[in-house]
Please model this.
Amino acid sequence: MRIARRTLIASVLVAPFVAWRAAALAGGAIARRVAKTGGEASNIPAALAAVGYASAARRYTLNVAPGIYTEVGWHTRNFVDIVGGDRATTILRGELPDSATAKAIENTSTVWLDQTARLENLTITAHNLRYAIHLETNGHVPGAVHEIINCTVSHLGNTAPANTWKSDFAVGAGLSSGVHVRVQKSSFSARRGAFSYHTNVNFRAPSMVEITDCDFSVKETGGAALIILPLGSGQRDQCVLIGNRLHGAIRYGPSPWLPTTLAEQPADHAEIKISGRGNGQVVFVNTDFGLALMIASASTGPGASVRVSGDAVPLLFGDGTSPKLTTVPGSPGRAAFVYGWGDISGKPVGLKQDVTITSLAHRLGNCERRPRALQVAIDGAAPVTVRFAQDCSGMSNDAIINLIAQALGQHATVGTYAPGARYRPHFADQEAMLHNGSDTVIAMGSVVASGETAGTVRLMTADDHVSARVGVAWEDIPAQQSGRVKHTGLLAASDVRYVDVTAIARGDQLSIHPEQPGALHKHPRQGVLAALHVDVLTLV
Model:
């Protein structure tokens, strides 16, 4: 029996969590009561300190009576759950005075959820603090299971005059290898970011973040409901969002990219794969900076091809030692092209963003003693050799790209390709796999209309009625092939092919350009998309 890849990945990630949960329930839990008066401890840190040996088979539950608890900066313990008696009245109020120093604010959160533990039925707030919940394992607690169930979590802002901390999120998280985060029936609010998490380097197993039936809201215009940062785990990490209300964008990007060797510098940093359904109207903003070297044929059609070889290929396209690249054949209306695995952006990497190793100059270095060669064959013709025998270490990307372009002449174009920036989440209720029934490629970002038969699409034209619009291509769809089409929800303005010279303004109606099918310009005639803000569009 064949098992779908997505199903297999989900089962591998979820199975350890299910096994842990079953063991916890079977073994029961040792209960301790926390109350302002009459409990075994009057506050949570004291109760945690009094807990004996805890394990998966010997879990503890701290049952916290309603009241206001003002302790800050305390850490959870492994296999010790903290459960409030009532979500609305069991309040963990984290606060430092307005006299607090910038260092104290940056280093203090209400609670650190940094072990296998559950927070449930609680209201948790932060004021003049880093986060309300600091879910931080810093890569050092592999396989932990963190749960936030039926909680209200809010960062109320930092008003201390000395404050310099700008990431005042309700939840800030840094994951470890194989960590499973489960968030359910909770609400998160803050000024700039409601819930933020990032991976770390060198995971041995993928992480999983599951968020179900939660509310996320931000106070500032342009704030993010979710901030998701893939930082170099080397795994196919997963984020599953089901039935949430997100009042703000999902912001996604590698900032900063942590690995510092050339072998760990892909142009596509989108390691966290997002999926789900039922999350309403939410815009996804991808800020992946990665760029790959690309060579494209001047010709289009099935006969177009590009082939590269030579000892410069691992440096220009790969990881420094291996010739990693992707070859895309020509098709009707589309050139053939190759693009590299490796990032050539030149953007500094590492925790302090002070390591510069990815530019073409750094990749080639000084070729005077050891010349390099790149062979490029276009459309099956004899290869053209581009030789690098000079000191390239001080050259710009543009200069090296121009050197290759001059050698290839009119037969090809040379530039960059941004594979990571093209990543989009898979929300099953907002997109569909549809067939390009036309004889030309549908470029990513093109508006598509219904084709001649059910399940087919084509580039929308200025002559089509708005009712013919199906959605926006979520990837390039070659002629007579199928691809992703977003048919519902919000889009970033950068998600579409906008060809007007004037900038988009709030309230603008966009229609298909009369000379460029699938592309948009500012005109109310069709009104196939509308601008909610200067950078957010809606499929009207």
